[in-house]
Amino acid sequence: MIRIAVLVSGGGTNLQALLDVQAKGGLGSGSIVLVVADRAGTYAIERAQNAGIHSLVVQRIKGDRSLFEANLEEVLRENMIDLIIFAGFLSLLSEEFVRKYPQRILNIHPSLLPSFSGKGYYGLKVHQAALERGVTISGATVHFVNSVPDGGPIVAQQAVAVHPGDTPATLQRRIMEEAEWVLLPRSTREVCQTMEQSMKIETLLQDKSYPGRGLIMGLSSEGEAVIAYFLMGRSNNSRNRVLALDGEALKTEAFDASALEDPSLIIYHPLRSFGSKVIVSNGDQTDTIVSFLAEGKSFEEALQTRCYEPDEPAYTPRISGMFEMGNPPSYTLSILKREQGQCKREFFPYPNPRTGRAHLIHTYEDDGNPLPSFVGNPREVEVDQGIGLFSQRLWDSLDEENRIALYVRYTHLDTGKYSQKLINKHTR
Question: N or C: which end of the chain has fewer CB within 10 A?
Answer without folding.
Answer: C
